[in-house]
Write a structure and sequence with these properties.
InterPro entries: DUF3039. This protein has two helices and two strands; from the N terminus they run αββα. The protein has 82 residues and is of the alpha+beta class. The longest helix is centred in the middle third of the chain and has 10 residues. The chain starts with 31 loop residues before the first helix and ends in a 7-residue tail after the last helix.
Length: 82
């Protein structure tokens, strides 16, 4: 019995420069306690704006934020994450 290593094959479509094609166009505000659960279990979260999705990426400083989520968040009273 023998094994063979296959050569790397680029399966990306022609002209694709980015390796992060599935990057969200904008990030949403979500309850903090639901983020880890979604990332680990694959469950869906509901953003403040009503968007429903599984958490697959984390926002980095300067990432675009959903304007509806931001407006709702800024209108919330300060307090806990309940």
């Amino acid at each position: 019995m023998s094994t063979q290593t296959l050569p790397d094959v680029d399966t990306r479509p022609e002209g694709t420069d980015s390796t992060d094609d599935d990057a969200p166009k904008m990030f949403h505000y979500v309850r903090k306690n639901k983020i880890a659960e979604s990332a680990v279990m694959g469950t869906h979260v509901v953003a403040l704006c009503g968007e429903v999705f599984p958490v697959t990426k984390s926002a980095k400083p300067g990432s675009p934020v959903c304007p509806d989520c931001k407006k709702i968040y800024e209108g919330l009273r300060p307090g806990g994450d309940e």
